[in-house]
User: Fold these one by one.
Assistant:
Number 1:
Amino acid sequence: MRKVILVAILITLLSLALTQIRTLAATPTPNEVEAVARTLYCPLCVGQRLDSCEIPLCQDMKREIAQMLTEGRTPEEIRAYFVEQYGPVVLGEPPRKGINWLAWVIPIMVLVAAVGYAGLKVRQWSQERALTGESIYTTEQGDVEDEYMSQVDRELSQLE
Amino acid sequence: MNSQTITDTRRFTRGQIIAFLIALLFIGILAAGLIMRHQGRPTEGPAPDFTLTLFDGGTLRLSEQRGKVVVVNFWASWCQPCKDEAPDLERVWRMYKDKGVLFIGVNWSDTEGKARAYLAEFNITYPNGPDLGRRIGQKYRIQGVPETFFIDKQGHIRQVVIRPLEEAELISLIEGLLNE
């Protein structure tokens, strides 16, 4: 009888220890929580990343991240959950779909157009210079000097 | 020579026109975004419709509540002023729930666990649900919490209060709309 009780106690202790080990293994480290929090933004602040945000909502969100990691959810699933809860603002950038694509495409198009236009202008300008044979060093001061030299010539000829 | 110069400056290449149109589109989108961001919350006219997924299960659609005076209260568990007004809201809801009045709690920018704990703490019994994706808050252009919208029997916004409400003020506003 004593043997049976001893075995029962041992089995109970062993199962408790195993449960504890499993819980510890599933508990995410602060670094794992921070890694997910770094990819999210506070929905109430402007441009404030979740990992460096200390307001109560951010603290609650970080606790939810830890909870979801414990449940075995992937960072991608956690991000999707927060987008569903608070909208795309938590991603810190507009989602790359639908009309939001314009926010990504237009700045690039403007940049390409501006660079292209500037390149075209520079080429046009250098071609014009080459055709007229005009020195790029011709300045207003040069024109003044030419005028001055002409006047000197005129006055010299008058003296002669 | 001069007339030639004038003609040259007035001619735009296709590239220039496209660049100009792109720049115009870009500025237009930026301007539209700024205008939308700075538009105030609606204070009159038809109340924007929404469907709220309730914490208790099921959904509630605002447009299906015509004929009732509806009080839409935006709140969050982290908001102290919301906690200040919560007992008054619940008390007045219990006074008017059988008199053609509906209170709707919209939980804004919160976590589900904290929101449920808040509802339990203040024993709130009127329909409540999370503002998923903060879409309802965007429709009503709320700036924070608490904000409360009073909607008449025809579904029009009649009053907006952007501070904690007290029992006497709630009763006065509801009575005003019920007696119309």
Number 2:
Amino acid sequence: MQQVIEGYRQVAPAMRAEGDTVVLDANGVYYQQLNEAIRSAVSAGARNIRIENANGQRYIGAGLRARDLRIEVHGTAGNDLASFMDGPTVEVFGNAQDGVGNTMASGKVVVHGDAGDVLGYGMRGGRVYVRGDVGYRVGIHMKAYESLVPVVVCGGKARDFFGEYMAGGVLVLLGMNTQFPGDPIAGSFLGTGMHGGVIYVRGDVEPWQCGKEVGVAEASDADMAELRPILEDYCAALGLDLDEVLAQPFTRIVPVSHRPYGKLYAYL
Amino acid sequence: MPATFIQPEFRVKIDYDKCHKCGRCVQQCGWGVYDFNERPIPHDEKCRACHRCVTFCPARCITIERNPLAYRDNENWSAPLRKAVWKQAETGGVLLTSMGNPQPYPRIFDHLLLDACQVTNPSIDPLREPMELRTYLGRKPDAVTVEPDGQGGFRLAEGGGVSRNIELATPIIFSPMSYGSVSLNVHKSLAMAAERCGILMNTGEGGLHEDLYPYQDHVIVQVASGRFGVGPEYLQRGAAIEIKIGQGAKPGIGGHLPGEKINKEVSSTRMIPQGTDAISPAPHHDIYSIEDLRQLIYALKEASGYKPVGVKIAAVHNVGAIASGIVRAGADYVYLDGFRGGTGAAPAVIRDHVGIPIEIAIAVVDQRLRDEGIRNQASIVAAGSIRSSADVAKAIALGADVVAIGTAALVALGCHVCQSCHTGSCSWGITTQKPELTRRIDPEWGAERVSNLVHAWSHELQEILGALGVNAIESLRGSRERLRSIGLDEQTNRILGVKPAGM
């Protein structure tokens, strides 16, 4: 008995092989069947998967742990793309929606279009590269531990609460490939509650945009030496010109304290 | 001016005629109450009445007394209120405390009485008759599909509509307490006890230490707003996954594990650097609606191979509607935490003034889910000061499937409810990360004590069921007809769905 949920059919996606690539046609297929097909292909040994006609299916790549796995998504990837993912590379030729890289452990996500809200929430490792704009609350509560250092680079502009509660990692905002040329590069409350990690913004940010927990300064040569290999990798992944990206000075935003609320309490 | 106006709450009395001058009290006290100069000299202001020194004094020469210092009587301006103002005038800080709400609000469990059989319907002797406490945690189907098994019977058809449930030997599980708020030895004690008792422990939001991997089939792994220690391996190891939205002791606010408690092991389990504050924001930043909650529930199911996913909330005013939304969002269980639930640290103003009693929340949620015809779709776990097997039976009669115990399990491990968990200096080695204190709990000893408690309560539950004349805990679930109230007002009785005694 075939059921239709929110316009999606509960059927397995059409599958074919092209060389060593498994191709899945996601057109109108419900996310559970699509993701089940992805997991089955991975268990059967597939290491290259191409999803065609993606139209908003959620959780693509969620919880997958194969390090040498590559997933291409053609179309629009749905919410929570690559959430809890540990290892694979996911490349989206189109836009991604909310929750990209939610609590991601490692791996790489490349989005050739725009992405939505809460990108990289709680992310603890791996990289997310977005060519265009991103939404609200991006990079919230990213955290680093020893060799695990998450990196998020957004090529366009961001809305409010960029890097809120950030506890570790590197968050970069370029403001270049944007649909909103008249808007400021980031919204308000940038880095509010930040207590670890670093945010780089290409160009300037106004003091009113930032949370009170951060300090803002122009990036030094040493900072740029840290940032340059990240931007090289980003440009290579998206086919962008590194010189153009580096043509403007960057602003570095770091927390003033690792314990922003350390003095808030009196013990009874 | 003196450094503080606040006078000591307790007085440490030592009978020096009996004292061996052995210094055991100096060594045992986590708060540094004692100096030693030929004999122990107590500093009363540091004492928290945890009785560690009293318990370990070989001469039994120590006692703790309440400081009899009189305050001018004033029912309105109690001494604790005066002291709180002085403390805040001295520090400018938010008053931080721990454990459950100690204020004298009515305790509804103590106004409920259970029924028993007399003459007309026989009671059952649980010592001779089978008495079933087994409980299944998780979603139950609206209907199942069966097929002939070829031997004259029937079996469940493949894909017959049954979701994965977790079998519990008794309807008692351990409530979430993170590694960080409690010590690793406490986590091990609870995990080992959970395995022995056929029940579950819960990581809280602090990750799963690798020493607990052997017990993973008896562990609920929690996902909270800080996402500490959460990764695909963590999700795949747990028996079930729990999304923590709120906690009864501090509804609506997040958590801060202070940097002092983040040592190397806690740091590696939470996967955050040593010495930084572990900040759990008040909301999950990807959950602003029931639809968003559904998205996280199914993200966790997709990432874990469709394990049961529960949602824990604090019991608040509109709990019925919230629970309905949670069930409709796809949760396999709803965990309700009442306003007396414990905590490792919470602002006193929140702990003492926010939330509603668990008894009310159970009754309201059970009724709401029944009225909407979705009660079968999720189990109800009730917590927030379950103090005895009587509380367990009453909670189940009000409509809970399972209860969770936190403070009771810690009391079994030696906790004296001194409400000082937030200091990180627990003399009993429970809510501390100081190695000289944490080693005071041997996990093997701890597991036995906690298992004893669960077994004892389970036996008592069987006695209660026998007296009620039923032979399975399922027969008591939601059976409010077997409860009567005394001293509750008519409206509370109506909300609880319980008749007053005599009716």
Number 3:
Amino acid sequence: MGVTFMVYSLAWGSALALMASGLSLYYSVSKVANFAHGSYVSMGLLAYLLAIAFAHWGSKITGFGIDHYAIFNISNLWALIPAFLVAGLVSLASFAGIFWPLMKRGATPLQLLVASIGLMFVLRFLMYIVAGSMNWITLWTPGSTTYHILGVRITLAEILSFVLLALVAGLIALLETKTLIGVSLRAIASNPSLAEASGIDSFKVQALAWFLGGGFAGLGGVLMFIFTGPPGGRPIVELGWMNLLSIFAAAVLGGLGSFYGTIIAALILGIAFNQAAAWFTIYLNVSSSLALLIPFGITLLTLLFFPQGLAGINWRKLVNKIRITRVEEEVVRR
Amino acid sequence: MNIISFLVTYLSVAAVYALLAISMNIDYGWAGIPDFGKAAFIAAGGIAAAIVATRIVPPLMLHMHPANPSKLSFFTYYNGKILPAITAHPIDTWIVFIISILLGGIIAAGFAVIFSYPAIRLKEDYLAIALLMAAQIVWLFLRVYTPIMGGTMSMTLPSPSFKPIARALFHSTSPSAIDAAKALFLWGLVGVFLYYAEKQMNSPFGRMLRMVRDDEYAAAALGKNVARARLESLIVASFLAGVAGAVYVLIHFSSVNPDYFMPDLTFFVLTLVLVGGVGNNIGSIIGALLIALLYRASYIFGTSLGFSWGSYLYYMIIGLAILITIFVRPNGILPEKPVRTPAWDVYALVRGKQPWFLRRILMRGRGKVNTGEKSE
Amino acid sequence: MEEGLPIRVENIKAGYGKLEILHGVSIRAELGELVAIVGPNGSGKSTLLKTIFGFTNIYEGRILLGDMDITKTPPHKKPYLGMAYVPQVANVFPSLSVEENLRLSYIVFRKRGDGARKFSQVLADIYEMFPILKERRKQKAGTLSGGERQMLAIARALLTQPRVMLLDEPTAALAPKIAEEIFRIIREIANKGITVLLVEQNAKRALEISDRGYILVQGKVAYEGHSREILSHPELGKLYLGLLK
């Protein structure tokens, strides 16, 4: 398990981080545990494939033919833009059309969650129509251009997932500290009713968060598909659903609604899952799908001790506690 | 397909859904626990049925060696020897069924005790996701760990034989007569579930659950043990889920495969409860009847369309059913009713708010109450 | 700074859900007037302010700001009309720094005021008025003490250049010395010409600094008049306000 595999694990984690941080971003303001988030992931992938199909209209783009054109290389990078936009707009539409009206009526968190399940089913069906009419229900991963840098094999998709994650993290950092709408975003997350009394247009701010969140999910979806292909040989539409629990695991481990906590959690889970998968197949000779036990186990255990996830841990206090116990031990020893 | 056979199969499917829905209604509807691990509790019934058919019944009843699903020779031995031996006697299949129900319930209740640890401590959203992850882990484990039920290979199970019942009732053993007997039995079981759930719901225990759901702090301030109430509701609901799971596996599929217990199943059951009426058992049954109809009709219609996406039409129907319910009737078709205490019964009786045919039944066993309507 | 606006509440009936709390309350505050609303616990003082700002259900009556009927205006539009509301608790954004808390007022200021340069001037004035906030401007608002938090909340409201200010028990749970400072600031605000509606527990001090006062009892106005008149009334203090002569 060399550097190459470590890079792959981290890149996988970054793709997960993109998807999960999107969820976190709008959860922080709207408090919707959105199960349709997986649909935005698949939407991004479909938009990417459709964009490439349109660019090569007339060639054999239906069925497995698309795999030949959709390979992830420099000249196809532009197709990430429609992936971002489509996923973002669908997310925005679902907020404006479903969640905002429900929130205005005073729906409980549980009702919002259940509504998101309904939305997930509807979106899934719509995607099946698109994927079905292009004959794309099952596809293989189209793969990505590979480079060798300093003796390390690295694919363009891997490089791009790091770059995109860094860009997204930077963008959000700038947005949340330097712009008024970003500060408003944090203000709503911190005290929604006061934000309303302060004249902040809650709808506009939340809509921005949903657009960005959905867009990030779409980007992560394309990258995840390039890395792993259809999960477990299932239809490509199920990509989002199959990754949804990992997304939630990362978001919950990071402390629901904490953007940076989620990114760190996703990277941790990415390494844990991929290393465990390799270990499971090589040493235990069991299916790598069981490796999901490890990230889920980590998340569940963390939740049991820190019900608010990583963001809820008071690190300074924890470190102090450890230090104090150590000092106490020394005192006792003397 | 003729209408009677459609109706009969539809009714038995709906009955199985109704069983699942009632168990979901207890922890989601009354106790407010977003039990997204329901699929795992239902799986307990499947696990139990597999264990009973392979390990318990052969040595106990048939004096045969138990079958081990992890061995290569399992399928030849199980399908060739044990399964025919069990199905040869209708009584044996019913014994398998009864032991499975009990074992399934007990295993599920055991799971509930384990799961309750987070259920008492976590907030709603966190809990929903934690339970979902737990269900996913159970599902993956069943798929990969073959000694439990042979992994992803479908294992045929001896479903209880309805032939004798059909013969006794309809003097016929045609497929639709057997299906009719099955539907009758299943609806009888629904009746038992309903009776039990209603009784629990209108007991002090049921009232305490609602109180905990509506205001945890007020309940605690009145000396109710919130953690214990949640644990108990989870155990009761999971026991029923385990029983329903055994029915789901033995009667609905008559085979077992881990993919029957994919975490999606939870959402399906949730839809039944939600559309029918959260916190209302009758509502849950209506939801099951309605969604089963929509599901089957949209599946048949979708596949007849001739498009490659036609078979996914039911996603749309179920999704829209959820969304429309949330918008139009956020509390479902039949919303939750006030708790029926003896005092409420008397009040309703005096005010004439009870339908006449229920009055006598309701007053039975409540002792003599002067309702002022003696002339009736 | 703009002049204050008169505000009139006419026979309002309001509450939460179906629970009516205010049973027909009429009050008015003239231009630049400091009006104190006092009364026993649970009399609906805070609900009255929430109702004026639009956080409750209004069943009857109307609210007029100047000549405009604002009965049905949603809360997030009110700041743009020149109203500012300082709730009793949770009146700052705890996870934002003090400066960010203040900068958020620019959202409203921009629509009502003159732009970024004027805003930094006003911000400088505010820092002069509350030197402690300048000292703590990089600190998270959640780490401030009770008095500092109350000052930050008032400062946030002032930065929007309001014409009417609604203050809900600004001195609750504060040490007497700090409460005194807050009262001084409130009087100063009213002196600048802003109409202030002040709800207070500490009836004696509130009436001492205010121009007029209302005594609210069980969702109704039990007495209205000049503050000095209420303070010197032989019975009122003992009856409703727990003031012993």
Number 4:
Amino acid sequence: MSMALLMFLTFIAITLWITYWAAGRSSGPSAFFAANRRITGWQNGLAVAGDYMSAASFLGIAGIIAFQGYDGFMYSVGWLVAYLTVLLIVAEPLRNAGKYTMADVLAYRLQPRPVRAMASLSTLTVSTFYMIAQMVGAGALVTLLLKDSGISFHAAVIGVGALMIVYVVFGGMLATTWVQIVKAVLLMAGTLLLSILVVAHFEGSFVRFFDAVTRVTYRDANGVEVTQNFLQPGLRFKPPYGALDLVSLGLALIFGTAGLPHILVRFYTVPDAKTARVSVVWAMILIGSFYIMTTFLGFGAATIVGRETIAAGGGINMSAPLLARALGGDIFFAFVSAIAFATILAVVAGLTISASASFAHDFWTNVVHHEVERRPGEEVLVARLTAFVVGAVAITIAILLGPTANVAFLVGLAFAVAASANLPVIVLSLFWKRFNTTGAVTGLGTGLVSSIALILVSPSVMGVDPAGSSTRHLIQAPPLFPLENPGIISIPLGFMGALLGSLFRREQEAERRFAELSVRANTGLGSEKATLH
Amino acid sequence: MKPDAETVKRIDWDEIETTAEFQQLLAAKRRFIVRATLFFIVYYFALPVLVGWVPQWMSAPVLGPLNVAYLFALSQFLMAWCVAALYVRQASRWDRVARQIVERRSSAEGD
């Protein structure tokens, strides 16, 4: 048995033990959806970090930096700064005024049924797209990392899907939280160790390291040897649209993170708004340190391993694991691979529980059954079933798409929808008295539709592949929209939709109840309390 | 004492909302949050705008091999942490005011 497989199995064993432990403590909706609201600040900080830093961050950004240098590091910056929006605008009011989902905050002063139905649709869209991207990535990655064990793509996807279903169905939010905490600790430890080894490789000298980064030699597409300064911008984002795409990406990150349902539900797991704030700060320390270290991961792979070796060893996403092998041998390769695996599992578990909570709490109980849970325990039961269904759907779609599908744009789509549909209505609902049900529905609608439509006609989906090469684009035609990131258009559209919709009609009740929401959000009076299990 | 579901139903939200101290708290929060948000948005978007439109300026070396682009990107991390620290300091003051508002209401209603 290979070392990597052994480490994978160890991690699975630990997480299943966590699930078993949590299962005994996960009865009742407050326990299942919000871990009894008794997670502490630093624990939730770790869990937020674990929920957020996906394989796209760990392997993807390291790879983009390794291949395209500085422009890849631009992603790293946005992923941290985005947390200021979470900290300053969303986390505390959400914790004070909500219960289990993002829609709770909207439903306070607006008509609950239409608003929850739309918010639930948007949540499920974001979670499903994000999850499919993770699952396809997971399948391809596990096959690659466990090459010697002969695990197929199908088996890997089913395995990851089954594990995430088990964590959520049996362990609820408590198990999900601790899986995310364990993953965050592993990820930080692995990244720190890898960074130290990179600097040690350059005899402990940052100057030598960065000197090497300014002179990276590789063969370009035509086989010509070129020497490139990897600290110089412009290797990824090129004229004529590169600059606009960069800004558009920035907008989606800065406004999208605070609208990601699986991040927002994490703030319901702590006792009060103050702890929510503390947990964002912990998360920012961890996430910031991690993304600064992507400098060493990405540039380290570029200088120590080299582009040709990475391409031959499985491609751009293998940059970090191959760097680990070059610096620490097979054991370290196995360790870093296991971290990548843990990373994927923690993120998909977070996505699954937020999707199930939204379907059960928003759609089933509040929309279908008019805010009444007919039998005690029904909401949790529906959530468990949803987790199972969502998992099965994600597994099926991932298998149908296959290991070579180009799904990276689905993560971008998830951020775009979160930024264009979710964030505008959350912000306006908290800060604008005149905001009403019509505005929320039109805002969520325009944000959702415009992001999806723009992505469908963007270069991520549309493009003409040269004859004879593998198919990279789903639609073989020149793109109608020049940018890969739709945020620059769809975010203003989402805000406009919410604004115009509100002005279209007056809603006395929504304006009258603004006082209640404002007092709740700002003082914590009447907020959901932690429960004993 | 923590209000239970029944007491919460009886809270006169409108009355609390109109008190001077609540309005002051709201104004103070809004002032800080709006300023801090504008600041970090301008600071952050300066990076993609400069990198995107004037890459030749950003490539100028400053500190040994390090150029403006990399140092500015690195400064974003510091900026985010500093804004977060300032916010936390302010927010703990607001916590005290909010607690006073909640406690005054409780004692007024005698529960």
